[in-house]
Amino acid sequence: MISKNICRYIEPLPSDAEGKFEFDNMIIGQAIPSNFIPAIEKGFKEACNSGSLIGHPVENIRITLTDGASHQVDSSELAFKLAAIYAFRQCYTAAKPVILEPVMKVELKFPTEFQGTVTGDINKRKGIIVGNDQEGDDTVVVCHVPLNNMFGYSTALRSMTQGKGEFTMEYMEHNTVSQDVQMQLVNAHKATKSTD
Predict the structure, then answer these.
(1) What domains are there in the chain, each with its CATH number?
(2) Where is the Translation elongation factor EFG/EF2 domain (predicted)?
(3) Can you give the pLDDT at residue 10?
(4) pTM for the complete prediction?
(5) What does the alpha-carbon distance between residue 164 and residue 110 come to, in Å, rounded to a whole number?
């Protein structure tokens, strides 16, 4: 995309990438003098600190600067920094961003007599059951559940199983939130912004 004399493309980093932001300068020649490149990178980084969707940082992206133009009189660090911010916002909106949430791998162990109640509760928490096994009189269930839906689960599990259920939970991955949750978060952010 081209914006304010900056040509660039933005792409996601691989999920196993270590960094949250990469900037590559692929300009050949002096289309943009090299002393302005740090200002462009700073503008992109600044724009990534607060995404317009819900105000949270935009992470795991690579921005590649491919071309540009400068003017001997009007070019300045501030002009290129602002051009980078504007260029990022243009791409960000066009990309139709999504919100990610942490998803946990949860392993439950409880007496089999409570299986219907416990699995029903996992479904209500938008969990996906990926494994189910028997260990004597107990059922072991492995599932993937959004972290946000696991708050207070220890108390809920004890209540459902008369204190006989237990679980472990570990981070698995980030995944997109549902469309209704995304709309709730976006609307809440807009409401907060309008009161500021």
Answers:
(1) 2-94 (3.30.230.10), 100-176 (3.30.70.240)
(2) 1-96
(3) 85
(4) 0.74
(5) 6
What is the signed CA dihedral for 86, 91, 93, 97, rounded to 10 degrees? -130
Taking a C-beta distance cutoff of 8 angstroms, is the pair 142, 107 a contact? yes
**Which pLDDT band, with edges at 50, 70 and 90, does 2 fall under?**
very low
CA angle 27–89–42, rounded 5-degree value: 50
Kindly state the average pLDDT of the residues 93-104.
89
| Mean of pLDDT over the chain | 89
Q: Which amino acid is at 191?
A: A
pLDDT given for residue 3 in this prediction: 44
| Cα pseudo-dihedral 22, 26, 31, 33, rounded to 10 | 50
